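Narrative of activities, Objective 1.

The group set out to show that a structural description can be obtained from nothing but a protein's sequence at a throughput compatible with the screening campaign. Below is one input-output pair from the validation batch, recorded exactly as produced.
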Amino acid sequence: MNKRLSTNSLSITIGAVLLCSSCSKKAQDAPAPTVETPVGPSITGLVQPADALMSVSLTDDKSHQDIASATLDSKGAYSFNTVPAGTYSLYYVQKRGYVRPRQQSVTVTAGKTTVVPTVTAVRSTASFTANGIAFSPTLVDLMIGPDKFSIVLTDETTYGLSLTMPYSVRVGTYPLNTASTYAVFNELGLGAFDSRLTPSTAPAGGTLTITAVENTAPFPSSVSGTFSFTGTNATSGAQKIISGTFANAYF
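Output recorded for this entry:
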């Protein structure tokens, strides 16, 4: 009887060992949990037109520090790689003649690619006539001062027309013969024609009519309008009658 008990005990012990061995093997054979790793860039975006911007900068919303900058490819695409999870802001640096797009807020999630909606940059445009001759500026540029700014309509070679106005400009009509609102047309070989120099026998300078102002925060700001004035050359006394329009001029 003792021999039979001993044999039974041995069988139970062997079975337990085999069972534990099987459990251990199954545990070892179980695949390890996968860890999600980033694939591709952290942030991608597109700007149209493709040549409207010089760069896009990425700023950390917590530290308010710029952490990276990206340029655009020939199609207007940009990307940022290996960006830690968090909330960021994109700031756009426009080329001359464009209105800077508004900043964008983006959230980066580890292992994911954040696709920023396509941004469209608005181009500034203008046209005018001087003594009946049509001018089509290739660039609407900007000159800034401490309390006023000038929109410059130019071909960058032979002429430039500057319209000066205060930063506080609003929709309305302004005379072009004051210290804060005036116009000057410069033409190669002919000199400058200033709206503030118009003699008393001619119309008083002219007017600048602002038809739209976009200055909702966060910036950019842009202005649109029309103008008409008589400009006088200080040396010769010659005059030019000038009128035109501009749209989406950045300031």
